[in-house]
Design goal:
Layout lengths: L1 E5 L2 E3 L5 E8 L7 E7 L5 E8 L4 E3 L7 E6 L4 E6 L8 E8 L3 E3 L3 E5 L1
Length: 112
């Protein structure tokens, strides 16, 4: 399984970005997908998740600002980020959870 993130970049506070994660390979046993991030000097934290039934969960720090979604036909996971704050800066990783867990390489988001 390969996960490739895209869509990161630099944005002003209050702005928006859309991250995408293209998933390839065997994914039939995947029961959940999600986004994590690691900010400068901080430990990795879960941001949002979506299960095989489409149910979503969010970290309190992003709830109401971020939206996780997926396009099964395109095997792509998305994270729409609005009202970005300085503390949203970090490397964002997508992950799939199944028999094994797979992580992407990460994409940098910088909010200034």
């Amino acid at each position: 399984v390969q996960l490739v993130e895209s869509g990161g970049g630099s944005v002003r506070a209050g702005g928006s970005l859309r991250l995408a994660c293209a998933v390839s390979g065997y994914t039939r046993d995947t029961f959940c997908m999600g986004w994590f991030r690691r900010g400068p000097g901080r430990s990795r934290e879960g941001v949002a998740g979506i299960d095989s039934d489409g149910r979503t969960t969010y970290s309190p720090s992003v709830n109401g600002r971020f939206t996780i979604s997926r396009d099964s036909a395109k095997n792509t996971l998305y994270l729409d980020m609005n009202s970005l704050k300085l503390e949203d800066t970090g490397v964002y990783y997508c992950v799939t959870f199944g028999t094994f867990d797979y992580w992407g390489q990460g994409t940098q988001v910088t909010v200034s």
